[in-house]
Specification:
about 180 residues; alpha+beta; Aminopeptidase; six-stranded mixed β-sheet; 6 strands; about 25% strand
């Protein structure tokens, strides 16, 4: 996969589509609004979406400057990347934009020469197969540890305020 220079622009039927990696352009209301109702991130709090974006490589998909899609990449930037939270808004689907977004992610300039890309999908295997993804060969299998109630709980004390891993004096409990 060749590296991509951003923003990437595509003109189709007089409409300007763009993919960009600039986090400042992201419309968090659009991203959270989609993810909070998705089957894979249902109920996700905005603060978690913001933190996920902060610690990931991201791609925003835009139509005439308005965000219509998103993809997020988690990677060690040496051997492995996980493609997550890929979506195109329903009214913009069936135009090849999802495939373009995934192919552009695979050419991210900070991720040349990775050995393995992973993703999880319930219903878009056909799209990802067009981009070179396939199920792992047996007997290889993925495992997960899933906490389905995690978004129903307040964040751990160390993530609420102060430096990561440190409790503030006000957080300490006396017995």
């Amino acid at each position: 996969m060749t590296q991509t220079i951003f923003p990437v622009i595509k003109l189709a039927n007089g409409i300007r589509y763009e993919i960009d990696i600039d986090k400042a352009r992201l419309d968090l209301a659009v991203i959270h609004g989609f993810l909070v109702h998705s089957h894979w991130a249902n109920g996700i709090p905005l603060s978690i979406v913001e933190r996920a974006i902060e610690h990931s490589l991201v791609l925003g998909l835009y139509r005439d400057g308005r965000q219509i899609g998103f993809a997020r990449i988690v990677s060690d930037r040496a051997t492995f990347a996980y493609l997550a939270d890929v979506f195109v808004l329903p009214e913009e689907r069936r135009k090849g934009l999802g495939r373009w977004l995934v192919e552009t992610a695979l050419g991210h300039p900070e991720l040349p020469g990775l050995r393995r890309w992973l993703l999880g999908t319930r219903d878009a295997q056909g799209l990802y197969a067009q981009c070179g993804f396939r199920a792992p060969a047996p007997p290889f299998a993925f495992m997960e540890r899933l906490d389905e109630a995690v978004y129903d709980q307040p964040p751990p004390l160390s993530r609420r305020r102060g430096k990561p891993g440190r409790l503030l004096v006000s957080d300490r409990v006396s017995y």
